[in-house]
Specification:
Order of helices and strands: HEHHHEEHEEHHEHEEEEEHEHEH
Helix content: 40-55%
Distance between the termini: 54 Å
Radius of gyration: 29 Å
Structural class: alpha/beta
Number of helices: 11
Shape: elongated
Number of strands: 13
Strand order of the largest sheet: 5-4-3-6-7-12
């Protein structure tokens, strides 16, 4: 529940904020170059001073020279430059919500994150290949809403149903077997959680795509798919893996090995096609087997996309207000501050120690 609330808050912030001219942000790349040049010049200056004598003697001869003030002035100047660049890129915040009506469907993708999905019979591994396919699918979405569920020994909502595709890709990148506390493959739990995750008020088509290797040992996945179909939710399955299967990598102790059973034999995880076919049949959907050429997610979505679409009401932020003036104002203030900070010690103020010098 806390993860879902956090996701919704992040989604709201992303919708409220935008950069009108993001191309100007490339100018920020000049700052690391200036820092490198400043650091190099400081080193060369120290080498040059060392030729004239020891540091203690020079400090007596030049009592008003400050070691820290030039650094402070440079930091202030870089902050001013960054603030001005941010200002000219025109950051904006949405000030008013408006409701748009779009025609689409609700789609939930349930992704298996059990250890067996790390098998490399599909390159680079089953899980990574599935994540790439989902990311490509998200890029093709326009008016549909999407949700993400991850499952292993139990199922969890990774992203609630949303039209915010940026958030979908953001949370997709963080998926790994480590995000679930219990290992296993509970396909039935994923389907049941998916049924609860759809908007009950949405009258249009609803579909769920299960991406897994099919090794279900936890629950009645076929029964769950049948229950989903009775509620008008179509269940599709994608089999991740090859019939001959593959070993599961184990990177414990900093070395690459393969998982073994109690008898010391290497565990080979194989695709359970009959199970996934039964789930898809019970869910009135279709089954596709992935291979090293393609995952098949786009083919399934083409079928899903033919479903009857209903109007979706989506609230988006409009009438964006420019906030560049705050950044420009801060930049000008920092420039003024840089002008007021002298590189040399002020003989009238040096006793106040406003800026502590390095010895």
């Amino acid at each position: 529940m806390e993860l879902g609330i956090w996701n919704l808050k992040l989604e709201t912030v992303i919708e409220m904020f935008r950069i009108a001219n993001p191309e100007y942000l490339y100018a920020l790349l000049v700052i690391p170059a200036l820092i490198a040049f400043f650091w190099y010049s400081r080193i060369q200056r120290r080498k040059a001073l060392a030729l004239f004598g020891q540091k203690e003697i020079l400090s007596v001869l030049m009592p008003n020279v400050s070691a820290s003030r030039p650094v402070l002035k440079f930091i202030v100047l870089m902050l001013a430059l960054a603030s001005i660049i941010a200002g000219i890129s025109r950051p904006q915040f949405g000030s008013k919500l408006k409701t748009e009506k779009r025609k689409g469907i609700e789609l939930i993708i349930a992704l298996d994150v059990s250890n067996s999905m790390m098998a490399e019979d599909i390159q680079p591994n089953r899980l990574e290949r599935a994540k790439r396919a989902i990311s490509q699918l998200v890029d093709k979405l326009s008016n549909d809403k999407i949700g993400l569920i991850v499952f292993a020994g139990d199922a969890y909502i990774q992203l609630p149903i949303t039209a915010d595709y940026v958030s979908a890709k953001l949370f997709l990148n963080s998926i790994s077997p480590n995000i679930v506390p219990t290992q296993g493959t509970a396909i039935g739990a994923a389907i049941e959680l998916g049924m609860k995750s759809f908007n009950p008020q949405f009258p249009g088509s609803k579909a769920m795509i299960i991406i897994t290797d099919g090794e279900n040992h936890e629950d009645d996945a076929v029964g769950a798919a049948k229950a989903a179909a009775e509620k008008g939710i179509f269940v599709y399955t994608i089999g991740m893996g090859l019939p001959q299967g593959g070993p599961i990598p184990d990177f414990s102790n900093g070395m690459r090995n393969y998982r073994k059973d109690k008898n010391g034999n290497t565990i080979v995880t194989k695709l359970d096609e009959p199970m996934l076919q039964k789930i898809a049949e019970a869910g009135k959907g279709a089954y596709v087997r992935a291979n090293n050429a393609q995952v098949g997610l786009n083919n399934l979505f083409n079928e899903v996309d033919k479903m009857e679409k209903s109007e979706l009401e989506t609230q988006i932020y409009a009438d964006y207000d420019d906030k560049f003036q705050y950044f420009i104002g801060l930049g000008l203030f920092l420039i003024l501050l840089d002008f007021l900070i002298l590189e040399r010690k002020n003989k009238y103020l040096k006793n106040y120690k406003l800026f502590a010098d390095r010895k």
